[in-house]
Amino acid sequence: MENKSWTRIIKTDKNQRSRIAELSVRNKKIVTPLFMPVATQGSVKALSSDDLINVGTQCLLSNTYHLYLRPGLDVLKKFGGLGNFMRYPKAILTDSGGFQVYSLSRLRKITEQGVHFSSHIDGSSHFFTPEKVIDYESAINSDIWTHLDVCVKNPPQYSEAKEALRKTKLWAKRSIDHFKKITQEAEEKPKLMAIIQGSIFKDLRKEAIEYATELGFDGFALGGLSVGESKKQMFETLDYIMENIPKDRPVYFMGLGDPVDIWMATKLGVDMYDCVLPTRNARNGQALTTYGKVYIKNAQYKNDDTVLDNECDCYTCKNYSRSYISHLYKSGELLSHRLLSIHNIRFLLKQTDMMKKAINEDRFDESFNEFLNKYNQK
What we know:
- By secondary structure, the protein is α/β, with parallel strands linked by helices.
- It has two domains: 4-275, Queuine tRNA-ribosyltransferase-like (TIM Barrel, Alpha-Beta Barrel); 282-375, no CATH class.
- The protein has helices at 49-55, 64-69, 73-78, 82-86, 98-104, 130-140, 158-183, 202-215, 231-244, 259-267, 277-283, 315-319, 322-330, 335-360, 364-375, and strands at residues 7-12, 19-25, 28-32, 34-37, 59-63, 91-95, 106-110, 115-118, 125-128, 144-146, 191-196, 219-222, 251-253, 272-275, 286-289, 292-295.
- The strands form five sheets. It has a six-stranded parallel beta sheet.
- Helix 8 links the parallel strand 11 (191-196) and strand 12.
- The longest helix has 26 residues, at 158-183.
- The mean pLDDT is 96.
């Protein structure tokens, strides 16, 4: 697998870690730092594909587990993949479904061969293997794939994390072998990222990195972080990972969406992120703004004729007041979900734009502090 061919490092900040990279996959260009909204079931909740394009997305994340169950792979094959199905022309990354099997399914049983589980929808029985998941991602026709991994409870015992990593390594080898087999004739090949497990145990993380590097994956997806450990543990582990990970491939922090955490992880050298936070928080009436979080249902916004964020350029902030959005939310009008989701996603994308500008100017750390000084005012 030609790892360097799809990753071009454009600029590294004077802090020697934060960077801008261009990823080229199947005639699509992605510039990092990158935040990916989550289209779990082929939809970013409350938003159309036009909304996502207009807000400035470069890539979405979708979920193999959910798409396998609904609408099903036959449907996606008929349409030529998820991008055509949902009419989204830009890049799509799929996670393997390993976390969803762990967190959603009933009667889960992990063996050397794969994982048996019952659907959270109707209780039907299913069996995921590393090879099957690669085949499923082929049917989804996403641009960047990940392999089946073993997730553990948090915090795990060392022995549990070590055993989970042992199986994850076995499955990584089977996945990449099958990936090479089924994509060898493809003119426009997708990319396959290794999932780096190991919880907060540094020796396990190093073992995972070294093995994934040896196998030749196209990038590294960091699993098992931001799942309940303390922020101190998370960033100490991340700092260690980033000190030991190859610099010629992208690094993706799975499930990170808090803006402060994204800035901090980018400071340490991470390139890519995804999270349901912006849309989930929108549905709960929370807006992310330059000066902190706004809870739109609060009484103080009933007659507020200002916009959510006067430093934001999104559709919502160009057109609607806090008062109107507060009215919509308290009235149960679904338009509030859309307007707040557009804003929150744009806010996170704008943070990554600010990071790029700061890196280009060799002032990432200074810009991070400027962001914090504003964001922590509320």
